[in-house]
Amino acid sequence: MTKPVTSRLPVRVQPNASRTEICGWYGDALRVRTTAPPARGKANRAVAEVLAHALDIPPSNVSVARGHGSRDKVMEIIGIAEPELLRRLDGLLRPGDAATTAR
């Protein structure tokens, strides 16, 4: 049985934000804001859900691989190769957005 394609994505999370959104790039990490608090994994679940929705994949295909209790996380995404993942994310972000130019 072949192993499914898996990608890892560095993410910088801002919990307790005024809205949930993908903001752009923060260095090499994707910056994500969420209204969810960091308590009891709520922000982690919210980040996984927003990424799954944005990438049009099931939420079960997105999980925290590293950084469960930190703002800086590594998300594991099953079913999308890294070049395709980055292409999809770049397509979501506005070209003139200051956050996208940091990458």
TrEMBL record:
Superkingdom of origin: Eukaryota
Q: Name one Pfam family in it.
A: DUF167
Q: Write down the Gene3D superfamilies for this protein, in alphabetical order.
A: YggU-like
Q: Which Gene Ontology cellular component terms are annotated?
A: cytoplasm
Which residue ranges traverse the bilayer? none
* InterPro entries, per the entry: DUF167, YggU-like_sf
Q: Hey, which family's this protein in?
A: Belongs to the UPF0235 family.
Which HAMAP family does the UniProt entry name for this protein?
UPF0235
* The protein's name in its UniProt record: UPF0235 protein PTH_1821
Species whose genome carries this gene: Geodia barretti (Barrett's horny sponge)
